[in-house]
């Protein structure tokens, strides 16, 4: 199914659609206030864009420098071409330690690699420890947002889920009560785990360490209690210098949730006492995007989620309608880069309002990218046949102004008098979801000519 | 060919040749706060923490006691604080600090713009202490306040310790219908004493 069909499913529940829209707008407004509190916000965005663009143009150099410096700090570095290799390496490390219990903190990369089902098949217990992630893990759902994974759920949903899985009281929907119950449940998991897996927000080339940002402290617990810490990162997560972090830590949380910084910004530069630390560097389809004329900037993304929170389409269609690990504007450009045929409807899940590009802390030209993707979809012959015929006809019509004028005139005369059943039939795709506009008596061209005449006389 | 070679080769094949320079400094003239403590305190309060300014160390113990009356198992590595002689280094594994009610730990410096404090793990044996303790009090020298993250990163290095963390307030979550709940997995309160 494509985005329109899945979105239609989501919007059937009108009340929930409005609620979802409002919840995200609330976060967007917090982001606005936070960004306005920093007078040099725009300068920071430009600096971030420059640092990231430079890094991507010299990615090989920085990855190698990172590896060298990380090794010197006692970190073991692995390279994985694709998801399968990433999962295999992870399993090898687990087996080496005879590990059966894993606590994981939120990582979109392991989500993309489908690590959980892979490890579970090997008889390993994987517990997602971010509260939102744990909720959806119980429900066997994927995250619907990269920062707010359970944003699609109401507290009643969470209450029911917890009642079923960790035995909370029926009908107690109090967020504090539910969070405390999860805290107790997850503490047991942290203390019993053999290995902690985390994502990576930034890998620093000149110090050879990684940075993980969370509010709950779950990544931190997962990486400081078990003996072994495995961190998975996409190749694009690298930044050159420690001082560059100042720019990104100022932008990230403010853009994501409107906080001045996340509660915890942890810098790991080596294992805990008597432990091991591993970093897996993963490509999985990223490197070809580096070379693309229109889409390379998408790799600069720091996954703050601001573009989703502001997107009028995402807010009303929900994260699942994108059928992709990363939804929203950034997902709509990244996913077609990797597989255009599979994700051909995503570039159209966009109103081209450019709000995403305006809030993006790294100034990624998201709306331009979506516009280019649409052209690629047409060039690749992937456009829906009905749409293609309609657009083909429209193109022809606009090239023949006389015919266009004539058709317009006829339409203005005839359409207002047509009965509804005729207007809103399957012939009229436009009218399927909207009321037709009122037809004016005269066309713009006619009005313009009249006006010119009046001026002259 | 190893995966590393394959990946580096692929990156070299695709990467763009145009050369965007790396800015010489990440930092630049930024917002400056007149009253650093005031700004720090406001920022920390906005994220659920609390900042307390003390004249000197003589009242530190009483001040901490006043906010943590119930705490029994206390671990403390702050010089001049007499609430506990246990600095956490006697425990063999991080699991042994799971029962700590209150951790009183040294912070290296504080950042006014966002209410964060830098904790350098060179001063604790188990990093997990920062996250497993039910409550945390961070004690920072009041002369060690900086305006922004740019100044903060100039002060950090990883030669001594393999780990450091910016902590801003207690742990929290808003994953259930965007309602803020303080105390997710980590400490349920986060006080910063500037002495
Ligand atoms: S594209 Fe920009 S706004 Fe969207 S998640 Fe990435 S960094 Fe944030």
UniProtKB/TrEMBL annotation, chain A:
Keyword 4Fe-4S: yes
Protein name: Lactate utilization protein
Lineage of source species: Bacteria, Pseudomonadati, Campylobacterota, Epsilonproteobacteria, Campylobacterales
Record key words, sorted: 4Fe-4S, Electron transport, Iron, Iron-sulfur, Metal-binding, Repeat, Transport
Coiled-coil ranges (or none): none
Protein origin, superkingdom: Bacteria
Domain 4Fe-4S ferredoxin-type, chain residue ranges per copy: 291-313
UniProtKB/TrEMBL annotation, chain B:
Gene3D superfamilies reported for this sequence: NagB/RpiA/CoA transferase-like
LUD domain: residues covered: 95-195
One matching Pfam family: LUD_dom
InterPro entries on file: FTHF_cligase-like_sf, LUD_dom, NagB/RpiA_transferase-like
PANTHER family in the cross-refs: LACTATE UTILIZATION PROTEIN C
Protein name in UniProt: LUD domain-containing protein
Protein species of origin: Sulfurospirillum tamanense
